[in-house]
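FORM 7B: Structural annotation worksheet

SECTION A. Query
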Amino acid sequence: MKESAFDLRKQILNIGVILSISIFITFIFAGFNTDMISIALNIVYGVIIGLSIAIGSSAISKKMFSKGDWKYNPIKKYISVIAAITTYIIVDIIIVNIVWFTITQEISVVDLLKSNMFTWIILTELFIGIVIYLIMLSASFTKRLHEIHIESEKALAEVNKYKYATLKNQVNPHFLFNSLNVLSGIIYKDVDKADEFIGKLANIYRYVLDVQDEEVVNIDREIGFAEDYLALQSLRFGENLKYKINVKSDKFIIPMALQIAIEKALKHNEISDDKTLSIEISNDDRYLIISNNLNPKFQKTESHELGLKNIIARYQHLSDVEVKIIKTDNKFEVRLPLLNLIA
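SECTION B. Predicted structure
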C-alpha cells in the first residue's frame, strides 16, 4: 500500500514537472504575450502536449516493465523502452500539433506540413520531450539496478543457507545412524542386498556433495538420487512405506529440492503397521509433482520448513513460476516448477 502511494506521488510529481516545462517552452515559442486569450491558449497547448507525453510515456513504461523479463537483460529492455517512447512522442506531437494549429490557426494540414516553423516546433518538442524522459528514466534505471543488486544478494544468501541446510539436514549423523542400523540388520542375512545398500548409500552422499554448488540439475539426476534415497528408506520401513515414480521430462530443477520434499513427507507423517505412507512422484508440462497421503505427527520439524522456504526463495530467483504447496484433509502435494536451461 505504501509503495502504491509512493508511486502515485512520483507520477504526479513527474507529470507536474513535464507540464511546467511544457508551458514554459510554449511561452518561449509563442512569446510572452500579455493578451489573456493568448495566455490561456498557450497554457492549454502546453498542458495538452505535456499531459499527452507524460501519460502516454508512463503507460508504455509501466506496461513494458511489468513483464519482469527486464531483470535478466536490463540494458536491452531499456533500449527497447526508449525506442518505443521515442516513437510514441514523435507520433503524439505531430498529431497534437496538426489538430491544434488546424483548429486554432485555421491552417490547412498541407500548408502546415510544408511550413518550416512546424518542422522546427516538432523537432524542438521531440528533443525536449526525449531529454526530459531520459532524465527521469535514468533515475528509474539506477533505482531498478539497485533493486536487482539487492535481489541478487538475497538470492546468494538463500543459496548459502541452502548449502548449510543441505549439509546439516541431509548429510547428518541421524540419517547415517539409521542407515547403518538397517545395514547391520541385513549384512549377515543377505550379502548381496547389503552390497546394494552400501552402493546406494555411497551414491546418495556423492550426489549431495556433487550438486551443492550447482544452481540447477537435470531432472533425471534428481530422480536417480530420489530412487536411491527411497530404496534405503523402504528397507528401513518395509511394507509400511510405498512409493511410485513416473517422471518423463528432460527439463531441470533445483538440486535437492525433490529430496527435501520427500524428507518432509517422511518426517511429518507417522509410518507404522497401522499407518502406511504412500509417496507418488510424477510430472506434467510445468511441474514435478510430489504427493503423499497424510498420517500427521503432532510435532514440529523446523529444519524441513526452512528447507521448503529456501527452495521457494531460490525458485523465485530463477523462474516466474512459483512453487505450489497444496494441502487437503487427506493429501499433501508439492509442485516444483520445471526449468528450461537457457544457454
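SECTION C. Observations
The radius of gyration is 32 Å. Residues 1-6 have pLDDT under 50 and may be disordered.

SECTION D. Sign-off
Analyst initials: ____
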